[in-house]
Amino acid sequence: MIIQTKYHGEIDVKETAVIKFDNGIPGFGDEKGFLLLPLEQDSPFLILQSVQTAELGFVVVNPFQFIADYEFDLSEADKEALEIESEKDVEVYAILTVKEQFEETTANLQAPIILNRSGKKAKQIILNDQKYSIKCNIFAQTQQK
User: Fold this and answer.
1) CA nearest 50: which of 93, 83, 91, 13?
2) Distance separating alpha carbons of residues 56 and 3, to the nearest angstrom
3) Which of 69, 76, 92, 103 has its CA at a distance of 20 to 30 angstroms from the CA of residue 86?
4) What residue ranges of the chain have pLDDT lower than 70?
5) What is the pLDDT of residue 41?
């Protein structure tokens, strides 16, 4: 299928590449199909691109690449909803708020996106752990290592 994207223009993608968000993403409940596209070659950053709305693309990153001690438990209900059978099928992404000075970019660690890669199902979950911020400067965290 051919779709328009925010950062990559028109692209041809396979239907099997579409990731399903059964309930959409908070604030975007009607957006249920997304793709993960590289932002740039050899970059840790990806675009979570809506297949419905060209202008809707979130810059995301695997938070473990920047925050070594990031951890949380996935509820049994979320595991069931995402049809997770094995931990190896799980990928975690944080939505970024990209700043003009890229080094000031922040990640929402309070509401990660959980993806069952093999089942192509995903969900943004809200963590109850207050130690994580919705505006964590990932580059400042990397420098503290």
Assistant:
1) 13
2) 12
3) 69
4) 141-145
5) 87
Q: How far apart are CA 28 and CA 81, in angstroms?
A: 19
Distance, in Å, from the CA atom of 118 to the CA atom of 90, rounded to the nearest integer, reads 8
CATH classification for the domain delimited by 2-144, as one of 2.30.290.10, 3.40.720.10, 1.20.120.920, 2.130.10.10 = 2.30.290.10
Number of DSSP helices (H) and strands (E) in the chain, helices first: 2, 11
- Classify each residue of 81-104 as buried b or exposed e, where b means 16 or more C-beta atoms within 10 Å of its C-beta: bbebeeeeeeebbbbbeeeeeeee
pLDDT of residue 145: 45
Residue spans per domain, the chain: 2-144
Strand partners, 25: 28
List, for residues 17-51, the tens digit of each pLDDT value.
999 999 999 999 999 999 999 998 889 999 999 99
Determine contact, residues 28/13, Cβ cutoff 8 Å. Answer: no
Give pLDDT, residue 80. 95
Encoded amino acid at 13, one letter: V
Nearest to 50 by CA among 71, 80, 19: 19
